[in-house]
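Technical appendix A lists one of the benchmark inputs used to test multi-chain prediction within the project. The record comprises two sequence entries:
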Amino acid sequence: MTRARLSRAIAIFLVGMLLVVALAAACGSDATTKAGQAEKEPGNLIIYSGREEKLIGPIIDQFKQATGIDVGVKYGKNPSLVATIEEEGNNSPADIFFGSDPGSLGALQHRLVLLPDTILNRVPSAFRSREGKWVGISGRSRVIVYNTEKLTEADLPDSIFDFTDPKWKGRIGWAPTNGSFQTFVTALRKAEGEDAARQWLEDIQANDPKVYPKNTPIVQAVADGEIDVGFVNHYYLFRFLAEEGESFKARNYYLKGGDPGAIVLVAGAGILDTSNNRENAEKFLEFLLSTVAQQYFASQTFEYPLVEGVKINPLLVPLSEIEVPDLDLSQLEDLEATIELLRDTGVLP
Amino acid sequence: MRSNDVKSGGTSLLSSLLRGGVERFYPRSPTVVWLPATLVAGAMVLPLVYLVLRAQSADSGLWDILVRFRTLEILGRSTMLVAAVTGATVAIAVPIAWLTVRTDIPLRRFWSVTTALPLVIPSYIGAFTLIAALAPRGIIQQLLESVFGIERLPDIHGFWGATLALSFLSFPYVLLPVRAAIRGLDPGMEESARGLGYSPWGVFHRVTLPQLRPAIVAGALLVALYTLSDFGAVSLLRYETFTWAIYLQYESVFDRSVSAGLSLILVALALGILLFDALTRGQSRYVSGGAGGTRPLRVMRLGPWRWPALIFCGAVVLTSLGGPMSVLIYWVVRGVSAGESLSSLWGVAGNSLYVSALASVACIAAALPVAILAVRYPSRFATLIERVSYLGFALPGVVVALALVFFGANYVSPVYQTLGLLVLAYMILFLPPALGAIRAQLLQVDPRMEEAARGLGLSPLRAFISVTFPLIRGGMLAGAALVFLITMKELPATLILGPIGFETLATKVWGASEAAFFAEAAFPALLLILLSSVPMALLVLSDRGSDTVLLRAKK
């Protein structure tokens, strides 16, 4: 009866696989229990990072080597990580949340502890939480990315408000769901007032902007000539340039005269109130704000260092030459009213 | 009541609703069937419990927000997309299934493998390729411009773009179960029909197609629910669906309560689809007199028709697989100069294979009792359990993942951030493909054969293992393959629930593409597709039934 034997073999195989599943689950839980216990001893640190591994992995490795601390990192999207930490509640394994925009840090603020002044004072007050609960680690500026075949810098206006001109109809790309874009809208509200911000959104809407899910496809679409200009963060362009070379048909343009469209935003980090590892967490933040780490961000990820005395990448326009608006970043945590406005104007559903 | 007279082979929600009586609700099935099935259903309910809890904790304005969300409009848009994608996938998949099983189409095995693979293409990569090719000034336009001077194509974004992308990404959901069903057909029925004077088309239309209906419906149901849950393609192609609105709440507003409220509406929509499916399933019986598939099926010689058949298969594979692959290869070639290497990826690839295999086994193990309960012991209870098992598939991955974060971290913290919980999430998300495939095949098996085995003194379990099990093996393998392929590319649950430091090829692709390192994203993405094609190829090549068919075709 080969068929009976065959089915027995399959049954045995399936049972075996089930055992493997059970075993894997058991081993997995062993590992976590260990990690959970070890968490309480010095020597461990769990980071939830909304910044990509490609960008911060190397600097975390340096931290591991320098301190011997065993660092575990969970990478993910900023909002998913915020939601995960909220759902985990008191049982969150996370010690640090490393977010890539002030919005997600603001959303998690109620779960973060007050940071010591020695950490906060490393960066200018504009680049940290007003309540002292998170600190900026690196900066990125909002820019206009433009297609170099169709436009030159001379064709581009000084202010983000000039893009409401009908001549830009159908030529603009934006990403209204993107955290940095929303923070820029918050800046617009704080700098120019609610009415002006609403008017700007309505006027841009009237120009039929193309909607993208995030910054990268905007830069790509600009280079492809699908759109002529896009509202993005500065550093995406440099990654395309690194892969595609100088022939890539897009460049960055900085708006003039302290325009909100030229605001500098930060990625930042804070310590969770459920962390049992505060000492190591503080060590990590101190490390991120050390000259070594700041130099890494400046030269490797094309971002702006926030600590004094660190040289920026020569490809970048120095922070001092960008005509940044006179705004306090901690004012930009107020995401809720911005979302409300974006919905009211129909930019977001 | 007429429906009282029906001794149903299939289960119909409507008829079981019509049938009254407590005894109809409670299972008259062996413990070994209903207990595991109930446990599975219990797991499937977890996300619903979580959603209800979250939606309740919303601010008083929840209802206002739902109204403000133009809920009806989004509902309409989602429904339209579901209908269009479902129709398109059936139109693509059924001919391909027929061609690759029942005809002597050249390169049959090649088509069998490649037409299943679009399932591993992450939807954002598929959508990205489509945009690159068909955008107003994309690759196709450039070709047309050089030949015909066309300067702009109509905008691909929106309804048609989303339909196109999702259809070409999800038609294997229909293809695989239909292929399994075609293999399980009893050739005797077709032969009788021919003997009665039906034309070949008549045989297909009157005899074969009705036999395939459960598999087609099972696949179409998967496509419909998948379309509801997809985020990657609709967000890139800018077609606003429910899942898009849900993600927006998480991503922009950090509002889990409103997300939960919207997710519950999505669940209601899924229930609507499931009810529609139940109503169309009807009462038909699909079993044949003997053991189906023991003799090879007739192979159709295509003759000159093989050219259009080849063009059709080629076009589908080119669009669904060739396009994304060539974009990835383009990125890889570009990345060679950037000095990317594969060596660091083997461990990650191992993780992907490992969890995907675990997920397949878990889904098959969970689907078996549910399918047996639904097919062999129909009752309201069985219907309820089977329907509930489908809900996870309609939910966005992030919702299921957060539900398990909530329960895992707060109530069973030892298993939190273990592979066990991740595999449970996969099971909740991907049970329906396994369930559909097994159910469809089980319907083709005559229960009297099992009864006969029991009459000969075998225990019900032994009877099942020695009689039914071999006959539904094809469905199980097809289901396992489906689950394997979609787990390979799963992202949101893997990111949220994976143990700390646990990486798969899918998370690698995401991490790199998020940071706009396309060359670096392309290596793991290509590896993902290549590795997924191995089990698919094994499945196709190991199928002895198809071998015999092939031999006969060559004679």
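Chain B has a mean pLDDT of 81. Residues 71-102 of chain B form the longest helix (32 residues). Comparable benchmark entries are summarised in Table A2.
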